[in-house]
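Human: I'm a chemist; would you kindly supply sequence and C-alpha cells for a protein?

Assistant:
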Amino acid sequence: MKEMANKALRLGIIGAVAALLLAVVNNFTEPVIAERMTRELTEALTVLAAGGTPGAVETEPAPGVPQRWPIKGGKGWILELTGTGYGGPMTIVASYDTGGTVMVARLMGNNETVGFGKKAEDSSYMKIFVGTGGNRPVPRTKADLGADADTVAGATVTFSGITDALRAGSELVQEWEGR
C-alpha cells in the first residue's frame, strides 16, 4: 500500500510540473499566435477586397457571421463565415460583390483531415466558388462542379460546410443590398 501511495505521489508531482510548464509556455506563445492570426487576417482582407479597400469591421451583423467589412466605394462586402466541416468549425473569409457573387474566398481556420479536407486551404480549391452566388448558384453537390468535381474528391463534408457558409453569405449580401 505504501508503494502505491509513493507512486501516486510521484505521478502527481510529475503532472503538476508538466501543467506548470505548459502554463508558462502558453503565457509566452499566446500573444505571438494572436499577432500572427491578426497579420494573416489583414493580409487576407487585402486580397479579398479584390482591388478595393476594406472598411471598418462590424461585429456580429448576422448569425453565422462573426464579422463583416464593407469594401469602400460600395463595391461589396467581406464576410467572416462559420462553416462546419469533418473536423468541426471552419472559419471562411469571403468577399462578395453587391449582387452576392463570390469574388474571392479563403479557408482561414479549420481542423480538417490532412490530405483531404486540408486541400480546401489551397487557393486553387477555393477558386471553384468564384463567380457563384448572385445569379449563379453556389454549388451544392459535386455534380454541380462538373469538371472541377475531382478537386473536392474525398472531402465531401468539408465541401458541404464551405458551400453552406458561402451560400448563406451570398443570401445575406443580397438581403443587405435589397435584392
